[in-house]
């Protein structure tokens, strides 16, 4: 059996502990895409490449410019039964880019989840805390920013309401 680039994918050590990993890697994602396209979309969606991403932490992502759907391998190691739902969700994005009412309606019609679940480690921890000098609200963020507070209504670009870095969480 010829080995594809997907078969040779370098897997991070953190994924090797999951019992579902081998079963997930055997799923023919391209065949599943074609089946879902025929059954739920009448075959009207364009041809795209579907593959696993060992780096992606969320359920899935669509790269329209490359006609590519990536499914997060780590996410599906936590939730192996969500592969079909995630693929349907990403396929709906081929028709409706934003998560608006028409997107949610289409997700309900095809039986796809609108949002993914979470698991420990899916998001990077907060690294910085900024505070508004106007209202005192604290804004935790993952990277350094230069912004004004929109929450207190006094934000805009006035220097007196620029968020100030008050804590580094490492």
Keywords:
6 strands; 26% helix; Zincin-like; 170 residues; alpha+beta; single chain; 2 domains; 3-stranded mixed β-sheet; 3-stranded antiparallel β-sheet
What is the chain-wise order of helices and strands?
HHEEEHHHEEE
Radius of gyration over all CA atoms, rounded: 21 Å
Strand content: 15-25%
- How many domains? 2
Helix % is 25-40%
- In CATH terms, what is the architecture of the largest domain? 2-Layer Sandwich
The largest beta-sheet arranges its strands as: 1-3-2
CATH superfamily of the largest domain: Metalloproteases ("zincins"), catalytic domain
Q: What's the count of strands?
A: 6
Class by SSE composition = alpha+beta
Structure characterization notes:
The protein has a 3-stranded mixed β-sheet. Strands 5-4-6 form a 3-stranded antiparallel β-sheet, with no helix packed on it. With 170 residues, it is of the alpha+beta class. It has helices at 21-25, 29-41, 73-78, 83-93, 101-110; strands at residues 49-53, 60-63, 68-72, 128-131, 138-141, 164-168. The protein has 2 domains: 13-110, 2-Layer Sandwich (Zincin-like), CATH 3.30.2010; 128-168, no CATH class.
Question: How would you summarize the topology of this molecule?
Answer:
Layout lengths: L20 H5 L3 H13 L7 E5 L6 E4 L4 E5 H6 L4 H11 L7 H10 L17 E4 L6 E4 L22 E5 L2
Helix pairs in contact: 2-4, 4-5
Question: Gist?
Answer:
This protein has 170 residues and is α+β, with helices and mostly antiparallel strands. It has 5 helices and 6 strands. It has helices spanning 21-25, 29-41, 73-78, 83-93, 101-110; strands at residues 49-53, 60-63, 68-72, 128-131, 138-141, 164-168.
């Amino acid at each position: 059996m010829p080995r594809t680039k997907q078969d040779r994918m370098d897997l991070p050590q953190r994924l090797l502990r999951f019992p579902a990993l081998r079963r997930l890697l055997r799923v023919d994602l391209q065949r599943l895409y074609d089946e879902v396209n025929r059954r739920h979309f009448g075959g009207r969606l364009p041809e795209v490449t579907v593959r696993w991403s060992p780096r992606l932490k969320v359920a899935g992502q669509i790269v329209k410019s490359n006609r590519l759907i990536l499914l997060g391998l780590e996410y599906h190691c936590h939730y192996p039964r969500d592969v079909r739902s995630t693929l349907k969700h990403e396929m709906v994005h081929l028709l409706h880019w934003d998560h608006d009412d028409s997107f949610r309606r289409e997700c309900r019609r095809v039986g796809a989840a609108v949002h993914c679940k979470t698991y420990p480690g899916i998001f990077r921890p907060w690294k910085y805390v900024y505070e508004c000098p106007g209202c005192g609200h604290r804004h935790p963020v993952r990277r350094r920013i230069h912004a004004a507070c929109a929450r207190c209504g006094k934000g805009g670009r006035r220097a007196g309401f620029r968020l100030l870095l008050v804590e580094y969480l490492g």
